[in-house]
Write a structure and sequence with these properties.
This protein is of the alpha+beta class and 237 residues long. The chain has seven helices and eight strands. The protein binds zinc ion.
Length: 237
C-alpha cells in the first residue's frame, strides 16, 4: 500500500473517532497530514468527518491551493498550514470542537496546569488563542505566538487545534485535553481543585525529559509553573 493511501485511510479512521466521540458535530472539524515538503492531504469542507472515504480527501500545496481531489478543501486549511510552516517535524494537525475543552474556550478560562501528572507530561501547557473569525489567515495567525512552545491550543469561542509528528498523537492530544477538561469541570463541582506543589511539577518535567520527550518550556522560565492557579478554588467566606 502506498504511503498516501495509508494516510488517507488513517485520516478517515480519525474522522470516525472524532465524530463518534462528539468532538465534531455535523460537518465540524478538519484534519490534515503533510505528505511531503509541499503537499498536504486534508479533509474536505461540508462533509461529516464520520463518513469519509479515502477518495473524498483533498491535496493542497503549502499556499493552500488545491492541487487534487473532487471535493473542495477545508475552509480552515490556513490554520493547518500555519502549524506546518512553523516546524518541519510536524506531520499532522487535528482541529475539532470537543465539548469540555470548548467550554473552556467559550468561558475564556485558561486551561489550568499543575493538577494531573499525565497532563503535565504528555500535554504540557495548553495556551488559549484570541478569537478571530474562522477560516482566513488572520484566524490562523492567532496561534502564531504559541508555535514551538505548545502542541495543543484552545481557540477562544471556537475549539481546539493540536499537532504532532503522527496523526494518532495529534488526535490523542485533543482527546486527552477533553478528558482533562471534563475532570476539571467535575472536580470544580465536587469541591476544591487542588494543585501539585512546584517541586512535584518540576519532578514531572524531569520525568518528561527522561522519557526522551524534550525539555518543557517551563523548565527554562523563571515564571510560575502554574497557569490559572485560582481555577476551582472556593472563595473562603
Ligand atoms: Zn472549527
Amino acid at each position: 500500500m502506498s504511503e498516501e493511501l495509508q494516510v488517507r485511510q488513517e485520516l478517515c479512521e480519525v474522522g470516525r473517532r472524532l465524530y463518534a466521540r462528539g468532538f465534531a458535530a455535523g460537518n465540524d472539524g478538519n484534519l490534515s497530514y503533510r505528505l511531503s515538503d509541499d503537499i498536504v492531504v486534508c479533509t474536505p469542507t461540508l462533509m461529516c468527518k464520520g463518513f469519509m472515504q479515502p477518495t473524498d480527501l483533498c491535496l493542497v500545496d503549502m499556499a493552500g491551493k488545491q492541487v487534487f481531489g473532487p471535493r473542495k478543501h477545508t475552509s480552515e486549511i490556513h490554520l493547518h498550514l500555519e502549524v506546518y510552516r512553523s516546524d518541519p517535524a510536524v506531520r499532522a494537525v487535528v482541529h475539532c470542537h470537543p465539548p469540555h475543552a470548548t467550554a473552556f474556550a467559550v468561558a475564556r478560562e485558561d486551561i489550568p496546569s499543575g493538577i494531573l501528572p499525565e497532563v503535565e507530561v504528555f500535554l504540557g501547557i495548553v495556551p488559549r488563542a484570541e478569537y478571530e473569525t474562522p477560516g482566513g489567515s488572520a484566524f490562523a495567525e492567532k496561534i502564531r505566538p504559541f508555535l514551538g512552545r505548545a502542541n495543543t491550543v484552545v481557540l477562544s469561542n471556537h475549539g481546539v487545534v493540536s499537532w504532532a509528528n503522527t496523526l494518532e498523537l495529534a488526535y490523542w492530544r485533543a482527546e486527552m485535553l477533553d478528558a482533562y477538561c471534563r475532570i476539571l469541570i467535575l472536580a470544580k463541582l465536587v469541591g476544591n481543585v487542588e494543585r501539585l506543589p512546584d517541586d512535584k511539577v518540576m519532578e514531572l518535567m524531569n520525568l518528561k525529559q527522561a522519557f526522551g520527550m524534550g525539555a518543557d518550556p517551563r523548565q527554562q522560565q523563571s515564571a510560575s509553573l502554574l497557569v490559572n492557579p485560582t481555577f476551582g478554588k472556593r472563595s473562603k467566606s
